[in-house]
Amino acid sequence: MFANIGNKLVNKFKAEIREDYVYIIKTFKVWEFEKYRPLKNNLKIHFLFGTTVKEVDEGESKRLPL
C-alpha cells in the first residue's frame, strides 16, 4: 500500500516510520490516485493530523495476514 504524508506532517512521522517494518496505522483517509500510480493498486493512504503509528514487534507481525 502506498502512503502519502503531507509537508506539514513529515517531521511528525519521520522518526516513527522506517522501511521494512510493520506498523498499525490508525485514523487516515483512503484516496484514489489521480495521475501518478506507483503500484497496481489504485488506492493510497493519506496521513492526517490525528493519524497514529505503532510499530508491531517481529513476533506479532508474523501472525498478521498478508
From TrEMBL:
Domain of life of the organism encoding this protein: Eukaryota
Pfam families, per database record: DUF223
Replication protein A 70 kDa DNA-binding subunit B/D first OB fold domain segment(s): 2-55
Residues spanning the membrane: none
Name of the protein this chain belongs to: Replication protein A 70 kDa DNA-binding subunit B/D first OB fold domain-containing protein
Origin organism lineage: Eukaryota, Viridiplantae, Streptophyta, Embryophyta, Tracheophyta
